[in-house]
Amino acid sequence: MRADIGCVPIVWNNVDLPDLGDPVPADEVLDELARLGFAGCQFGRGFPDGARLASALERRGLRLAEWYCALPADARGLTDAAAPLARATLRRLVAAGGEVLVVAVDGSPERDAFSGRVLAGAPRWREPAYDELAALLGELAEAAPDGVRIAFHPHAATWVEAPDEVDALAERLGGTGAGLCLDVGHFLAGGGDPVDAIARYGSLITHVHLKDVNPAVLARLRVGEVDGLGGAVRERLFTELGNGALDLDGVLRALDRIGHTGWLMVEQDSSWLRPSEAAAIGRRVLEFARRAAVREAVA
């Protein structure tokens, strides 16, 4: 596999739950990312912007793999603020020399109550909401300069979480120029099989977030013993690669079969370990699994 390995720095500074730990300066985070051998990273909390960010990354031999943008939405679909935010974030990505705009829908209380168990009667979007989202993704793809991609990230506690909801969007993305960012941890938590998803969506998957899932915490989330996604993240729902329910070997084999050459982003929202230790484990486990997959393919 020719994909580069990057890291989402949320394990150092969680954007959604900032009280999980004391803030870590951006320079320290970037130094650690470079030391651990990552090729690039997501824009992180506290990072500089524009040319300052591009310079900080270049000095360390890093690339800006992605910028994450969660669009405001409600039960009817995207709000009026969604499109302006998406366009502005795309401009920021381009100004800093970034490569992928990862678009998601912001979380909502109505859906957070059904995190991990959407089929248990969660409120759902109607068809026009998916049409509007796909149209905006297509607009962003058309506006993006050469070398910049747009990828949508299905996410727990949002209006696009369960496999059938991802299907509803995916069937509208053909011809738009936009793709999917498959977060295997969120897809697994949402009730799907990431290996099957890779086979089903194929070349629509242009960007990948790799995170493992603690099955015990997920089971408690699904029966309502944990207070939504935030509560599950506090209990370390997402764990180090190789330490949970994710079939990492199967995911890598499936990505190889579709010829994936986009980024593989190691991500962990929280950890009982020190951030650098958690990121190092993810990096090493992924590299070992990738080499094993290559050896198996050659054999």
Please characterize this protein's 3D structure.
Helix 1 links the parallel strand 1 (5-7) and strand 2 (40-42). This protein has an 8-stranded parallel barrel, surrounded by 5 helices. The protein has a two-stranded antiparallel sheet with strand order 4-5. The two termini are 15 Å apart. The protein has helices at 26-35, 50-59, 82-95, 109-112, 127-143, 163-173, 184-189, 194-201, 215-222, 228-234, 248-257, 275-298; strands at residues 5-7, 40-42, 63-71, 73-74, 77-78, 100-105, 149-152, 179-183, 205-210, 212-213, 238-239, 264-266. The chain has a single domain (5-298), classed as Divalent-metal-dependent TIM barrel enzymes (TIM Barrel, Alpha-Beta Barrel). The protein is an alpha/beta fold and 299 residues long. Helix 5 (127-143) packs across helix 6 (163-173) and helix 11 crosses helix 12 (275-298).
SSE blueprint:
Elements: E1 5-7, H1 26-35, E2 40-42, H2 50-59, E3 63-71, E4 73-74, E5 77-78, H3 82-95, E6 100-105, H4 109-112, H5 127-143, E7 149-152, H6 163-173, E8 179-183, H7 184-189, H8 194-201, E9 205-210, E10 212-213, H9 215-222, H10 228-234, E11 238-239, H11 248-257, E12 264-266, H12 275-298
Parallel strand pairs: 1-2, 1-12, 2-3, 3-6, 6-7, 7-8, 8-9, 9-12
Antiparallel strand pairs: 4-5, 10-11
